[in-house]
Amino acid sequence: MNAPANASGNARDAILKSVRDALRRDPLDATQVAALDARVPRHTRPAHDEDLVTRFMRKFESRAGTIERVASRDAVPAAVEAYRLAHRLPQRAAVGAALKDLAWPDGWLIHHEAAGITEALAVSRALCGIAETGSLMLASGPHSPTTHNFVPDDHVVVLETARIVDHFEDGWTELRARPEGMPRATNIISGPSRTADVEQTIQLGAHGPRRVHVILVG
Amino acid sequence: MQIRSDEFKERSVFAIHDANLQTALGRARYGFVGKRAQQVADLPEFEQLREEAKNLKNHVLDNLDHYLARYEQAVVASGGQVHWARDAEEARKIILGICKRVGAKTVTKGKSMVSEEIDLNEALIDNGMEVVETDLGEYIIQLAHEPPSHIIAPAVHKTKDQVSDLFEAAHGGPRKTQVPELVDEARRVLRDKYFRADVGITGGNFLVAETGSSIIVTNEGNGDLTQTLAKVHIVTSGIERVVPTLDDATLFLRLLARSATGQETETYTTISTGPRRADDLDGPEEYHVVLVDNGRSKMLAGRFRDMLRCIRCGACMNHCPVYGAVGGHAYGWVYPGPMGSVLTPLIKGLDAAYDLPNACTLNGRCQSVCPVKIPLPELLRELRHLQHQQNITPVMQKRALGIWRWVATRPKLYHALEQLAARALSGIARRGRIRRLPLAGGWTDSRDLPAPTGRTFLELWQGKRGQR
Amino acid sequence: MTSSPTAGPRVGLFATCLMNLFRPNVGFSAVKLLEDAGCSVEVPASQTCCGQPGYNSGDYDAARALARQVIEAFEHFDYVVGPSGSCMATIRHDYPALFADDPQWLPRAEALSRKSFELLSFLADVRGAAVTVDARYAGTATYHDSCSGLRGLGIKGQPRALLGEVDGLKLKEMEDAEVCCGFGGTFCVKYPEISEKMVDDKVRNILATGADTLLGGDLGCLMNIAGRLKRIHAPVKVFHIAEVLAGFADGAGLADAPKESR
Ligand code: SF4
Predict the structure, then answer these.
(1) What pLDDT digit, counting tens, does each position of B147-177 carry?
(2) Going by C-beta distance under 8 Å and a sequence separation of 6 or more, which residues neighbour residue B442?
(3) Is residue C87 part of a domain?
(4) Does domain B36-297 bear CATH number 3.40.50.10420?
(5) Domain boundaries, chain B
(6) Three-state SS at C79
(7) Which B residues in the span 71-110 are in contact with A, Cβ-Cβ below 8 Å?
(8) Where does the Cysteine-rich domain start and stop, copy by copy (chain C) (predicted)?
(9) How many contacts (CB atoms, under 8 Å) link B and C?
(10) Nearest residue on chain B to A33, judged by CA atoms?
């Protein structure tokens, strides 16, 4: 612990020692460490009395996202096709493998790999929706590559109404429940990419998708 | 970047007369302030959250060694690597070492104030790498060869016209004049860089000890493209950014966007945990975190510990009338505004930035909006106290204070002098005011001095009471 | 009214430096308001300055010397009241901080802190039931919230409520009433260009209201703003709010020509 902090390899110990010196104490003992590890955070969560689906929709749309509701998962391909036509996109999409089993319309070119630089449209499935802010939560993995969320101009996200949770904390609970543990990237997305870096003027489609469209199932 | 805080006075005077800057500042000030106020009004729990955030940060700082160790364990468990840097030089060496090892030619960067603090770009460029800032604001000022003037909106001092010029010079014509065209052009140019990048460097708004994750919050998505498409992702972060759990991070997320840009949430909140998994289809192969001390652990020791609660939201500068008058560059280093006026002298030395703690009216607006309730005015005053103790305060000022104290602790003399002054000043007054006063140019160059009426209150009061 | 003036609390008037030198009328206004509110008022001759110039310049020893003098001059009163949020915030908040490590003076500083009030908050919050405003002012006024009073002492509603009782006065709020005017004590002479920019912004907001009168609770800010208003020949009168509430705003405003002459 008191080794001279000369080599850069000692930076870690030197910094931790400097922290303890500043706090005027020794390393915490086992009891103190156990108490910290057992600490359960309880913070105020913004209260609201809205129905979760209504709130999710209202908040998501307030941030320039668009939503279409469909009755069942089977209706997703038709909804994507309608979106494609409305935005005059080619019949080509990067589709998360989580949606592999859907019956895509004839003539579509579908792949499940990472998005390439020319990718125009991606379709992903969200792990959950967060009603608090109207945000989508997507977990990266072989079924949902992160590039799908950021590279294409158009991002269509499938979300089941039953998967809309109230607060961020409920989203973390979903993450913790995954048998494979934390995903490499957890993307919480609240509408299309935007910037206000030129004269405070809000402009959509800065680097990420210009449009984010949710297909709400159920 | 080279610190120029000793030129604060000169640069602030110029800033006030720089018409482009004043246009840009005027626009920004009302945007941020109004939007934040709306968000605060919409969230009844806001004050409660501020109090909880302050307490949580204090808890983390009290146990910083523990949470840093836990965080490190969790990063390693998820396949990432943690590097510790005592100072700017050590941090540069670590990052340069990683870049060289992987043979990096192109390095993309998301916005990171710590990388500004450690002068990272110059070091990478000197070693032959192409460094591309991808946050639109950072990209603009990189083209302009300028440092950021705001921690959230680095190019807030630039007008659209100036951006048009910069883009035309860098990308060729035809000159774009509309915001959508400018944003599109940057999007097109930067696309290619993301896909070519060997290393992507981002900051970290929060480091989560529970999961070993770093969290960044952006509106543009540039940070995500930076870290997803490069082969190596490096996170630079101050050691004070660690929080115990995801639930704890949430408390700050609720405050950050509202305080920073006046949004309920930013568009992207990204939690990054380790490198690409075996079956992942994208993501970086290596994930590194560089934890930078650079004076922070020393700040823990005393009065300035409060400053380590800072979550870099920029609300203090958005609400600071001095920042609003002179902009960020006058402050002469990486961090401007109230938080910078505290941090710069602490990191770079009290005498390197004499003016920063002094150029403040102590009006307290910064403290009243700070989401973690940092008593910024008190800290600035405390820095003045240190300057006074260490004889950094100008001799003339110290002498004047000495005389004032000597007189003010002698009530009879003090009142006699006030009576003299009341007579003298009212004698030279014309129509109730004094337009010019020797040695008082600081006042009378731009203002009249309201004249006394000839007798002091105490004098009149004693006379009146005597008559009773 | 339940208490006669003689039975009311004994109040020591804190005669701020600027008021004493530049605007005695504010002091007499304060005395009138306090007496009307049932207090007996005294003005200790052993007072000078609250010490804030030293404190804010980082000379804590000088500030403590002045603070001890104020404590000794005022601690035997029931209340200390002054017509300045800035000075009274110093006494209320900074004195205890200055003596935090001094077991002998800390209790005295804390005791004084507890009974020290800025004039308007004292009238509205402490003497509320006993206060009746009996004044006329023909004009439209706008009110500048001085920073120390506003953020240090929570003074915002009190002056407006009291002004609401002044006959004939119309209050018109300005944009950014809560933003600093650029005075800041020695700040305004150490950084005159920045201060000028700030006071110009303030002046623009005042003029935009079309009000003919500017009111405020701190002479420092008012002198700064009045000085700028007069320099640009703006036809706006400037008074301390106490002058209006006491009905003593019939003379010349700050930096205006005395009414008798010419
Ligand atoms: S000091 Fe407070 S207001 Fe300023 S950037 Fe830091 S957290 Fe935000």
Answers:
(1) 999 999 999 999 999 999 999 999 998 999 9
(2) C188, C189, C190, C192
(3) yes
(4) yes
(5) 36-297, 403-467
(6) strand
(7) 72, 78, 83-86, 90, 93-94
(8) 11-92, 142-225
(9) 208
(10) B66
